[in-house]
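--- STAGE predict ---
source: upstream dedup step, 1 unique chain passed
mode: sequence only
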Amino acid sequence: MPAPPKRLTLSQKDIVRAYYRNSTHRTLKNTCAWVMHEFGITLNRSTVSRILQCTRDYSEANIDAAAAMLSRYN
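--- STAGE serialize ---
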């Protein structure tokens, strides 16, 4: 059985940002719990904070998935 992924993809990061914008309970702790429930990935609050601070939107970008995984902190 393959291990679950340890990093969020660019599209998952966009989903996290959208969840945070649309959530009624906007706390980093709640967002971390939601990420664990949705994606099965445990993130620290500082990591979620960094994801939320990023203003880049990759939803319209045509990025090869393999190339996107080359950079650790997208």
